[in-house]
Amino acid sequence: MTKSILSVVGARPNFMKVAPLHRAFAAHSDRVRHSIVHTGQHYDAAMSDAFFRDLQMPEPAFFLGVGSGGHAEQTARVMVEFEKVCLAEQPAMIIVVGDVNSTIACTLTAKKLDIPVAHVEAGLRSFDRTMPEELNRIATDALCDFAFVTEQSGVDNLLREGWSSRADNIFLVGNTMIDSLHFALPAARESSVLAQHRLKPSTYVLATLHRPSNVDEPTQLRALLEILAEVTQTYHRDVVFPVHPRTRKNIERFGLAGLFDLVTSAKGLHLLEPQGYIDFLALMMHADVVLTDSGGVQEETTALGVPCLTLRTTTERPVTCTLGTNVLVRPVPNAIRNALQSVFTESRKSATLPPLWDGKAAERITTTILNTCLSTSFFS
Question: Is residue 314 domain-resident?
């Protein structure tokens, strides 16, 4: 008899982590029925459709439609709606990925129903508890039954936090984000997005900004926008800036629209709507350097060998700094200027690919679940 496994997605980065799992489970349909639950935590019809299409994912089997809201409100809504799915579906396992509110909400719900939980991307720590994502990571890992880890730091963190007695349930498997990158690279190479915006490879800076610490305070947001305009003038490079909905909303809320208009008039600054996965990957792979505050972009640039300056003081993905192309930069103007100067005028950081980031993480995860996790007492 086939067993039901539910994978939860709540925000766009989750799509890239779950898509390879769904394809891998499809090869074992005689043993498991894998279904995707979309909580709707972050939902834009056009963008969600684009990501599902780009990653060749099926329509979610369940869409909870919880929408936006405060952390407590959103988490509670996910729990209420996800419990209904679990009671109806009676899954043998729940798979959660990453660190968004949907991750901890569905973990809590499943565990209270005595359903085993596997956390993909377990063990990552920034050690900054002012980040909501850090709290979600810690709580999810404290509750889950199986930990699938992207880098050695995750294993070390889990063992330090009390997993020593169940170390056999920690699996270093690689990174499903990189699986999706490998899957989409052929399409990204054929993308016309550079031609659409009259861009040439290695002549522009790609920027993404969405962290509350960078965009929720007007003085900080103003400073970062001014730096983007400065790049076009000082280094004579285009800046490509897909504007996150949170960032655009705050520009309006803080009355910075006038400044925003001024910044956009800077020669070579391209303000874009949020991009689908393939077009964004194309922009990233051809960028001279990436300025970001995104966790996933740190990983993707490392896999692509593209220099990355992360505008944060901490990262939960240290391997992107120790082995990869990532450099942490304090998100203040002088530090950013110095980092850019180093990238453009000095020798660039050498980098290597982290272990197991080979595009086969999802295969390792599904093999482990089928051959190890499903044979534990949880499933007897």
Answer: yes
What pLDDT, in 10s, does the model give residues 310-336?
999 999 999 999 999 999 999 999 999
Of the pLDDT bands very low, low, confident and very high (cuts 50, 70, 90), residue 1 is confident
CB-CB neighbours of 252 under 10 Å: 10
Map tokens 């980031």 to a residue: 357
Q: What is the layout of strands, in order, in the sheet containing 170-172?
A: 62-63, 32-38, 3-9, 93-97, 117-120, 146-149, 170-172
Q: What is the distance between the alpha carbons of residues 316 and 302, in angstroms, rounded to a whole number? A: 14
In a domain, 28, yes or no: yes
**Catalytic residue chosen out of the listed positions 210, 236, 244, 286:** 210
Residues 26, 107 within the same domain = yes
CB of 65 within 8 A of CB of 41?
A: no
| Reported pTM | 0.94
Predicted local confidence at residue 235, as pLDDT: 87
CA–CA gap between residue 272 and residue 287 (Å, rounded): 15
210 in catalytic set: yes
Domain count, the chain: 2
